[in-house]
Amino acid sequence: MSMAYRLLRVAVLGLALALGGGHAVALEGVGRVVGIHDGDTLTVLDGSQRQHRVRIAGIDAPERAQAFGEAARENLARLAFGKTVALRCAKRDRYGRAVCSVFAGGRDLGLEQVRGGFAWWYREYAHEQNAAERAAYATAEREAREGQRGLWRDAAPTAPWAWRREARG
To answer: The pTM is what?
Structure first.
């Protein structure tokens, strides 16, 4: 990365932080995946050798202790671990993770998780996707359900948000 490009990135980040009250997402661009937490969360190492926890936008995968949770994690690892990914980040969640669309080899990893039956399309946040993304995710989930792929093999899979609510009591 050239020095001019790095300086431009720093200037843009500073401006975004100043205008956004400190809430801007400072993670954008490319990095290498160095960790997989679960089926929708990974760790990316940036060009400055800093690690960032990233929540994949548009999906909700089963929790690790939940049915299909480990399978979702393993599939995301197969798709992303050790690979260079491109990130398009829109916000941070309440846990401080950057919420990003993540691409490896030109493939949208969130869409791939839904397509394989390893995650739900997170409709609650569909308004954050553009029309083409919403259509692709809706189609991918419908086809995964119809094809009984992954978690859709279960007759009545429990959505992660419902599972978390039950776990909290």
So the answer is: 0.83
